[in-house]
Write a structure and sequence with these properties.
The protein has 503 residues and is an alpha/beta fold. It has 2 domains: 120 residues, Immunoglobulin-like; 362 residues, Glycosidases (TIM Barrel, Alpha-Beta Barrel), CATH 3.20.20. 25% of the residues lie in helices and 25% in strands. The chain is built from 10 helices and 26 strands. Strand 9, helix 6 and strand 10 form a beta-alpha-beta unit. Helix 5 packs parallel to helix 6, helix 6 packs parallel to helix 7 and helix 9 packs parallel to helix 10. The longest helix has 28 residues. It is globular. It starts with a strand and ends with a strand.
Length: 503
Amino acid sequence: MSHQAAMIVDRDFVIGRVDDRLFGSFIEHLGRAVYGGIYEPGHPTADERGFRRDVLELVKALRVPIIRYPGGNFVSGYDWRDGIGPKEERKRRLELAWRTIETNQFGMNEFVDWCREAGSQVMWAVNLGTQGIDEARAAVEYANHPSGTYWSDLRVKHGYSKPHNIKVWCLGNEMDGPWQIGHKTAEEYGRLACETAKAMKWVDPSIELVACGSSGAGMPTFGEWEATVLDHTYEHVDYLSLHTYYGNPDNDTPLFLARSLQMDEFIRTVAAICDYIKAKKRSKKTIYLSFDEWNVWFHSHEQDKKLEPWQIAPPQLEDIYTMEDALVVGCMLITLLKHADRVKIACLAQLVNVIAPIMTENGGKAWAQTIYYPFLHASLHGRGNVLVPLIRSPKYDTKEVTDVPYLEAVAVHNEEAGEVTVFAVNRDLEKPLPLSVDLRGFGSCRVIEHLVLEHDDLKAVNDAQNPDRVRPHARSGAKADGSRLEAVLGKASWNVIRVKTGV
């Protein structure tokens, strides 16, 4: 096969509509995500509430619709009541998940305020490790009940007369993991999640709930865990969670770039298990997926082993991302879009400093990492209907994944704007890849812009000294002739080609 790729999309062949929440993110009380990240009283850009305005500007540009909080592993030992009320009365706690000191100077009310500033909704996780039904129902009452009860009146007393109206709640975090505080078997977790879900929805029937799926496809209980948990919770929850992280510790870039094919398989497998339980229960309800932790994570492992325990907000999980990491994140975003019919919520883990697209210095600068840009482009231009992509591409093999297409691509039709956006990664490390796209049913088209993220050095990073070393640029050369789009994708590049339709 010649070294070129082709894609056919038809305006009537739609995978599904993108739920805006596909471009969600995650803030955990871990490292400098909160303290020194989104919240740093005394910082030159901090407002009167201690929110860093420089970070908020970078977050707002991403148009993140929903943010999961406060964890993560952290939540399984967290008492949400420690983070409300007068700050001088809040308790300092040993934080066992990450072996730090938690000051509780930032909690539910501060996070709700911060999310309003950022233009995001809150996705709250309840503690089903060391806590259970009572604390969870109280949290819903505090957050969402108007007034006239103990917990809702306490919120009013704390200065919030109107309910927070938090609509999406996670029933714990990674409860299949032996590392989790209060780790449970699928049977134990399924029962607890079911009864907690019932009580929470009795307090507020309008909320949506996410049950914990496996914390990775490599878990020994994967598959059986999902089936057992859903057996208990199917009629009481709305989503099942998936988590995955990829790394390149052996510096095998072709394999690293192929990892998103494993993500695709993971999603298809979990959807199949959900549908098996649906059939078993003769249910009319479909369970959707919340991919509420995903990213590249491996750079900081060695550095984290050297940290002294029991510090306040130490620099944990501070991966410095490379150009090749941005390509993998781009492939993962394309994979999520290809499953827009089933994956309704996804959270890039995390948002600031901790395995994050945004980095800060305490008291200093904030800047965008390499992975910021694919996420930005997908969030800005990836909303609408995802079209079924028929792709022909040359392929390669790796030691773990075979038949890897050099072209990873998808197209999204934004009907309101009269635009189709093609997102494409060229996995070839040596050669550019000519691409032809047949945009059937769209009439005559013209190219609005072709954005590219590329760098001669795949290990290039952005840092405080060189925050713009890796950043996108506009490339000319992509052209549309009628409903056919022609472009050349540079070697090892992320591409966003926006096309105006019906011109």
